[in-house]
Amino acid sequence: EQLRADGVYKEVLREGTGPLPDFRDGTKATFHYRTLRCGDEEAPLDDSRERGKPMELIAGKKFKLPVWEAALRTMRPGERARFRCDAKDPLEGQRHCCSIAQLHDHYSLGYPDLDELQKNPQPLIFDIEVLKVEAPGSYQQDPWAMTDEEKLQAVPLIHKEGNELYRQGKVQEAAAKYYDAIACLKNLQMKEQPGSPDWIELDQKITPLLLNYCQCKLQSEEYYEVLDHCSSILNKYEDNVKAYFKRGKAHAAVWNVAEAQADFAKVLALDPSLRPVVTKELRSLESRLREKDAEDKIRFKGIFSQ
């Protein structure tokens, strides 16, 4: 009834299963959708299936398209339905059209139709299929959806998950976990005065996560990202041995020989107990340099003998 009062009409295309979820704040709905023009339903303006990833909405988080949250509150898992904005209510139609254009920011599928919709609003149809509905607390929230308190509580858990994935050899997945944990803390840090005690405390929590992230990037041979992040750490914490060591390895990998040697020397100066590890890295670098010199001689010999 509320949908009709808002000028939105529902047509069930396939019944769902189970009871209607209560959809209290924090409930997460995962669904596919298509956006259609009334009267031109063969050419969708947008289709989540073409992106290969469903949409996720968390109730109570002020989603940009309020009509979707209102529609989802009437649906069961597995249900598919169409929701049409009433053409007799131009203000309602305009609000939905402008919202969909803002939501996709003009580039969702590269269609110029969304730009046209903002200029000339018209009624739309949303074809929605609910894949699953999860109660608050039954799923791990994305960082953007968390409150500040939830972010702080989530970081140690995400960190632990990242460590476990790394131990299993799932380097890319581990990097994604470390990235999420860093994003939580960075979001909180942005609200603090740079250099304040709270800002520094958060930064000290970010540093070990960033070093773990760099270790993953070393494994995946993304050396320049390691150089950037380790340098940013060393600009603030000049005695961070792990940052020097990882940056030294990255320098060595991209043939920055002098820089690598300088970083490894700094590691030894800060922690002489790491001499066996550093010696191994320096010998590896020297061996690669000899191989490279031999290859260069053969290559240049071939050039000059032609």
From TrEMBL:
Keywords: Cytoplasm, Phosphoprotein, Repeat, TPR repeat. It comes from the Eukaryota. It is found in: Cytoplasm. InterPro entries: AIP/AIPL1/TTC9 (IPR039663), PPIase_AIP (IPR056277), PPIase_dom_sf (IPR046357), TPR-like_helical_dom_sf (IPR011990), TPR_rpt (IPR019734). The keyword Ligase does not apply. Residues 24-84 form the AIP/AIPL N-terminal FKBP-type PPIase domain. One of its GO terms (molecular function) is peptidyl-prolyl cis-trans isomerase activity. GO terms for cellular component: cytoplasm. PANTHER family: AH RECEPTOR-INTERACTING PROTEIN, ARYL HYDROCARBON RECEPTOR INTERACTING PROTEIN RELATED. Interacts with RET in the pituitary gland; this interaction prevents the formation of the AIP-survivin complex. May play a positive role in AHR-mediated (aromatic hydrocarbon receptor) signaling, possibly by influencing its receptivity for ligand and/or its nuclear targeting. This is AH receptor-interacting protein. It comes from Zapornia atra. The gene is Aip.
